[in-house]
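1st attempt posting a full record on here, be nice pls
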Amino acid sequence: MPRSKISIYFLAILWYNYLAMAEIKRETDLVPEEFWNELLPICSKYLGSKGESILNETLDILGKDRSNVTFGDLTDIYNALISKLVYLDRRADFRMELYDLRRKYMVPPEAIEYKPSKLELFLNRFLSKRGSAIIIAVVILAVVIGLYYAFKPKGETGVISGRYDVVLWSGIYSRNMEKTVNEIIDRFNERYKPYRSRLDLLPGSGDPMAEMGTQMKIMAVFAAGEPPDIIYGAQNPIYVNSPYLIKIPKEQIMPLEYFPQILNQITVDKEYFFCYPAMISPKFIMIANKTLIEGLGYNPKKIQEEGIDWDSFLDLANKLKLVSPYPVLISLRRGSLFDIFWMLMVNNGTERAVEDGKFLWSDTKIAETLRFFDRLVKSDIINPTLLGGKISNNIDIFNEGKAGILIGSYIDYKLIDNAKRVKVTVLPFPNNLGNKMSSLWDIYGYFCFRQRNNYNPEKAQMTLLLARTLAENSDWVLDIGGLPASRNIWDRLKLYREENHSFLYKYIGTAAHLDTDPLFTQIAFEAINPQLENIITGKADVNQALEGIRDRLDKILSQSKR
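the predicted structure (as tokens):
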């Protein structure tokens, strides 16, 4: 076949691809009406009966209605919807379904459906001589090989040579992280020759659009059957819960020196593990202005050692009103109103709410905790105007010395502590347990690994070993507002010797088990959280709210028994 005919055919294919890609929607394009018909069932699935009203409230807050929402606006809308899901363990599934729906409408089937043009049909007939199929296959293969090498990730020197047995994909969240990970990999490669590993960088660093691109790239590569061996994701459970990650038998996992409570939280069930967590963070701690607290006659060290009970906390907060315009600020960076209630329940002597399908929280404990929550609201300690506001505003208020306590996470503590404008002490959440205290912890930042079907046992062990090595040497987690999940890092860096870290080191040991039962989600979101909002907004007094919780709880539990 003449070379010119092959060129014409190849150009026709490229022109077809160009036309197909031109049909993919832009971020400035308006979302079609049919999109909302599919979004509402997803909202109802994860947010319950209030799914549609929450969606409408979100649009109203963003100054949008369904007629003027663009595909680019969906990022903010999705983030707002996901933040309303009380059950943190299901946020990954919620996020995945939302972005799947976005992709469905941004890349409609007709954009990628094969529709031969008249020119292509003509060329097919024109080139249907003997051997043309082989020639076309060779051309296509050459194009595929060319594209592969054009987009193949480049190493630090820009050239990849040799065979890489273990490939790590990771977003980079600090310069120190990239440096540390590369140093670990270099040492790993030197020690375990001839095995070699490499780090491929992915977009991320907290940008929602870049993060979505990361997820799409990961899913595309998994779907193509060429996944990386290890993926690192910071606060992105899609990597943990993704169906693309294969379960690995427990006996194949090499043990890592975690705190016992952290180890329990990385088990997906009793038989399998997915990942090595790199970072942990408390759901809520009290970050206090040490100068103000001591000036009011309180001993922060004693509070760290013994905790602070509910009445003493109310007394402290009321005294702070005399010396600060904002006695207590609350950050909902990593949670919701229910998370505050959950922390109060844990610090009122409860642990799991649901186990084996049974609801374990007693009516007495719920009533006690709800009444204390109501006292916090009535005392203006939980202030609706400051609750869940921009955390940067709360940080500025605290740094200016206008607030006595910020109830937030370790990330917030790092932001304040680095400012060096106020002396900071970290205190436990108020409790109703006498001289006891209890905490809830989130894991964020995972090295998730996958075993392919064609892994030989030695290769599988090398993959697990690198994931374990990375988790055990993740010193950079402190740079990005986390605490190391591996206790040997605490020991090696002597973190526990610093006053606040010494307390946090001890506080981790009080962690209660996290609830992961779907029934817990339903109870939290449909029975309890709406009544907390009613108390905050003044729509119900505490007795009405308690009756509302009881009524809805009875209906949920009766339905679950069917």
